[in-house]
Amino acid sequence: MRIDISLLSLATLAQTASGLATVANTREIVFPLKTNQHKDLQLRNVKYAFQELVESTDFFVQNSPAQFYDSTCLVPALGAEAAFQFQQSTPSDLFPHWSTELVLKVNTNANSDFGWICAKVFEQKELFEDFVDTTNLYEAVVDHYNSLGPHPGFPASSAELSNSPKLNDLFREQDFCMEQLRDTGFVVLDNAPKTSVAGHRLLDQFLHHKTNQDTNVRTDSVHFLSRKEAQSCGFEEHYDTLMGIASYLNGNLEMKTSPHDPMNPATQEHPLTIPNSIQLAEYAESDFYKAHSDNSLTNKMVSDVQNNDRVRANFRHYTCILYCNDDWEEQDGGALRLYPHTRNLSNANDAILNGYDFFDVSPKNGRLVIFDSSNIHSVEKVTHTTKKRRALTLWITRPNNSGVEGEQYF
């Protein structure tokens, strides 16, 4: 398989409404160059942007010295050679003004390879979106993730703090915490790692983009942090604490027996698994997130359960949120509003319309909330004019063979 990214003027692709094309074993995406700069400067900026993309990740590896219009790299994870080529089209009757486009080309029928490459480029789209239109890239990434089933996660025992005494310090009143989580579906702990003012500012580098969801639903900005990124801004302890919770719950929480067999790497004895990143979210003045469930019910019925339960949207089992806000007051807004015992509601708004009891959690520094991902909750509007409400979220998963197909991405 060979992957090419080229600056070309291709008539057949330019006429493709979606910007996507398939020719023989080749998958391609067109990136129209924006017209707000001189062409030579534009080409140079795009070339530098993609060089930075290659150097920002081990997914792409430089293969040859970069030229002005031509540089190449490899994709070791796919066992493929990747060529980044930048070429200015020659004048023609069809393109009299030297119109140029960026084309991402993958010579393979494997949609997953094409999708993963698009997804990796999309992670760093801020490097080059000033010079090219990335709309078609976004659509390809959405198609890719919509084609995947939910990931079963990684063993909870792989966390840095798995079985560490530090987790005993976090759950100081173990019996109370486990009983609270089991009976009410949530527990609030105020002795998690705190965030300094300087640490809060270091997170700025990761918060560039709003979510792609409807602004009537949520208005926050998010970024998924790797452990390496967390270390780079002094949040290693926060990251490791969140990742370690699943192993503690596997060993100490009496969980309800599932009628479904666990999916590897989960086991009957250790049913909870973890992801490989945590979400950083920021809410500024007037930002909010409407009532919702992190693992809602679908319309699909479970075939092997006597009471015909409906299938869940994903494998999320517990949502863990660690707040990173120094000097946050209740009057600043931004509370997490939890509706206990609402996991069986199909419509999140029913919790509000039917007057279900709720519990507000102010996002104070060092406060950790763990709750049943199926329960309805919301983030109330931030009212402070200058403070930024920031939180780190990890979703502990419980993968099983219940028929979960995954959610549709925006």
Q: Could you characterize the architecture of this molecule?
A:
The chain has 410 residues and is of the alpha+beta class. Mean pLDDT is 83; it is low at 1-17 and 86-92. It is 24% helix and 25% strand. It has 2 domains: 2-146, no CATH class; 154-397, q2cbj1_9rhob like domain (Jelly Rolls). A hairpin with a 7-residue loop joins strand 4 and strand 5. It contains 10 helices and 21 strands. The longest helix is centred in the first third of the chain and has 17 residues, at 39-55. The two termini are 29 Å apart. Strands 2-3-7-1-6-5-4 form a 7-stranded mixed β-sheet, with helices on one face. The chain has a 6-stranded antiparallel β-sheet with strand order 9-19-16-21-12-10. InterPro entries: HIF_prolyl_hydroxylases, Oxoglu/Fe-dep_dioxygenase_dom, Pro_4_hyd_alph, Pro_4_hyd_alph_FE2OG_OXY. This is Fe2OG dioxygenase domain-containing protein. Residues 274-398 form the Fe2OG dioxygenase domain.
Keywords:
410 residues; alpha+beta; 21 strands; metal-binding; Fe2OG dioxygenase domain-containing protein; signal
Spatial sequence of strands, sheet with the most strands: 2-3-7-1-6-5-4
Straight-line distance between termini? 29 Å
The main pleated sheet reads as: 7 strands, mixed
Rg from Cα:
24 Å
If helices are DSSP runs of H or I spanning 4 or more residues, what is the number of helices? 10
Helix content: 10-25%
State the assembly state of the protein chains: single chain
CATH homologous superfamily classification of the largest domain: q2cbj1_9rhob like domain
**And the CATH topology of the largest domain?**
Jelly Rolls
Average predicted local confidence, pLDDT: 83
Q: Find the structural class using helix and strand composition.
A: alpha+beta
Counting DSSP E segments of at least 2 residues, the number of strands comes to 21
* Structural domains: how many: 2
Report the β-strand fraction as a percent range: 25-35%
Shape: globular
The CATH level-2 architecture of the largest domain is identified as Sandwich
Q: CATH top level of the largest domain? A: Mainly Beta
Low-confidence stretches: 1-17, 86-92
